[in-house]
Amino acid sequence: MSVWLLILFAFLALLGIPLSLSLGLAAVTTLWWFDLPLSMVTQAMATSINSFLLIAVPLFILAGQIMERGGSERIFDAAEVAVGRFRGGLGHVNIASSFVFGGISGSSVADIASLGPISIRAMTTRGYPLPYSAALTLITATLATLVPPSILIIVAAASAGQSVGAALAGGLGPGLLLALALAAYNAFAARRHGYGTLSQFDYRKSLRSLLRAIPSVGAPVIILTGMFSGIVTPTEAAGLAVLYTLLVAIGVHREMGWRDLVPLIIRAGQTAGSVLLILMVANIATYVFTVDLLPQKTTGLLGTIASSPFATLLLMGVVFLIVGMLMDIVAAALMLIPVLMPAAVNANVDPLHFLIFMVASLAVGLASPPVGTCLFATAQVSKVPVEKLVVAALPFYAVNICILVLLAAFPSIVLAPAAWLTAS
Q1: SS3 424
Q2: Which residues does 121 contact at the CB level (< 8 Å), separation at least 6?
Q3: How far apart are CA 38 and CA 50, in angstroms?
C-alpha cells in the first residue's frame, strides 16, 4: 500500500505536477484503491493545520520579506565592520550576515534574494573569484534552515508533536557549528589562494555602519530573547517580528511605505500557503503509512542493519541527503517523519536530535542538484552556470557532510542548547 503511494507520487512528480498536488492525488488514489475511508481526506487535512503554532509560518515569512526590503544591506555592512578586515574577511561577512538574516526570515531563498547580490558583488569587487563567491553565498544561505526561526523546523516540529521552542533552540547549535566550519574553510582558502584584499580599519565608517544596523540587528535579538525566555510563544514572537520589522523599515530606515506592504502580505501568503498545503496532504499520506504499518516495518528493518544510535542516524542521513536532492525539503520532511522517527526513537535516538539532524541533512538538498531551490536561485543571481557553481561548491558540500557526521555522533550539539535555552 505504501509502496503504491510512493510510486504513484514519484510518477506524478516526474510528470511535472506540483508536489503538493502529486502527493495529494497519490494519497487519495491509494485510499480509494485499497477501500480505505475517503472521509479521512478532509479529517486528516483539517487536523494537520489545526495548530496555533503554525500561524508563525506566514508571520515569519512576512517579517523576512519586510526586512529584505528595509534592512538587509545594513546587516551586511555591520558584519563587514565586525569581520571584514581579516584575511578572507568578506567571506566571513557573507557567513555572518546570512546567519543574522536567517534569524529574521527563517528562509534560505529569502537570504539569497536579499543578501545574495550584495555579497557576491562585494566579494568579486575585492578580488574573490565569481564562482567561489557564488558558491559560498549558496551554502551560507542554508544556515537560515537551521537558525531560529527556521520555517522548516517549525513545520517539522509541529508535525512530529515536538516542542517548537525546543526544536528551534536545538537548531542553534548545528547552525553555529556550520557557520564556524565554513568560516574556517573560507580563511584557509583565502590564505592559500590569495583571495580578497585587506582593507584598513576606518573608525568613523565602522561606527556609522554599526549605528545604522542596530535597528535591523535588533530583530533577531527580540525574536530569540522573547521565545527562549518564555515571555512569548513562537507564534507571538512571529507577530512581534512583523511589527518590529515594519517599524524599522517604514519608520526608521524609511525604505518602504505602507503601500508596499500589501504586495508583501500577498507574497508571504502565497509562500506560506504552498508550505501548509504540503503539510495538509502529507497528513493523508501519513494515515496510509500508519494503516500499512510502515513505521513498524521500517523499525524492524533498521534494527537488523544498524546497531547503535550513531549508525542509525548515519544510515538515515544517506536517505535524507538523497531525498533532499530529489524533492522539496518540506514535503520530504513531512513524508519522512512518520516513517523514520519511530525507528529512530526505537534505536534510542532522542526525537529532537532526530528532527534537527533530518533538517540539517535535508538543507544540503537546497544547495544540490538536480532540484535544489537555492542552487538555481544563486545561479540566477550570480549569472554563474549551474554546473560551474556545483563544482565550485564541492569543498563546501564536504564541510556540510563533516558537520552532519559530528551532529550524528554528538547529540549534545542539539540537546544542550535546547535544554539551556528552554529551561524554565
Answers
A1: coil
A2: none
A3: 20
Which of 39-53, 272-286, 388-402 has the largest mean confidence? 388-402
At CA 340, angle to CA 339 and CA 342, rounded to 5?
Answer: 90
Q: Which three cell numbers stand for residue 117?
A: 547580490
- Output phi, psi for 324, to 5 deg: -65, -30
Contacts of 410 by beta carbon, 8 Å cutoff, 6+ apart: none
State residue 80's pLDDT score.
67
- Chain centroid, CA 140 distance in Å: 11
pTM (predicted TM-score):
0.85
Q: How far apart are CA 127 and CA 393, in angstroms?
A: 18
Distance CA 140, CA 96 (A): 9
Give the HSE-up count for residue 92: Cα atoms under 13 Å, Cβ half-sphere: 20
Report which DSSP code applies to 371.
Answer: T
Cell of 306: 544498524
Burial class (CB in 10 A: 0-12, 13-18, 19+), 117: middle
